[in-house]
Design a protein that fits this description.
Number of strands: 6
Order of helices and strands: EEHEEHEHHHEHH
Largest sheet: 4 strands, antiparallel, barrel
Structural class: alpha+beta
Helix content: 40-55%
Mean pLDDT: 95
Strand content: 15-25%
Distance between the termini: 43 Å
Length: about 160
């Protein structure tokens, strides 16, 4: 992006930019037009070729953390599951209890712990029980992410 600016740190490429439209003023204070970019790390402006930016991996990790913190009320989640799958929380417990035990003789999910989780006021996307119950209901992680982003039960269909 081309903006009027003045370099304030040559080594780092840090610049001070002009944010208005009075080009005569910017020229009068020694600013010139340069290709600059705003850093998504510190919010400062830099020459584009020296601008520190987050890696794709860092951006993906931040997005995963943001999604994990999305939350819906228990009523939102139960209502959506009912509309999408015709099941309420009691039906889900019964479904899990009807599943065959694993080779260690244990249920696929800790039923008592799940019952406690289902009493929670808020359901956080990052809670591992969300994925486990979702898998049991035939839902993908992407479907669950979209549901938590939008609170739209059709994302669960």
């Amino acid at each position: 992006m081309i903006k009027y600016c003045k370099i304030i740190n040559e080594e780092k490429g840090l610049v001070e930019i002009g944010t208005g439209t009075n080009t005569n003023f910017y020229k009068s204070i020694g600013m010139t037009q340069l290709d600059v970019q705003q850093s998504d790390i510190d919010g400062a402006w830099y020459l584009t070729d020296k601008c520190p930016m987050k890696t794709d991996e860092q951006k993906a990790q931040e997005e995963a953390q943001r999604i994990a913190m999305l939350n819906l009320t228990a009523a939102d989640v139960e209502r959506a599951i009912y509309k999408a799958k015709g099941l309420d929380f009691e039906d889900i417990i019964a479904l899990i209890e009807a599943q065959p035990l694993n080779e260690d003789g244990e249920a696929i999910l800790d039923i008592k712990a799940l019952k406690i989780e289902l009493k929670a006021n808020n359901f956080y996307r990052g809670n591992p029980y969300i994925n486990q119950v979702g898998t049991l209901l035939g839902l993908t992680s992407q479907q669950l992410d979209e549901f938590f982003k939008t609170n739209d039960y059709t994302k669960l269909m």
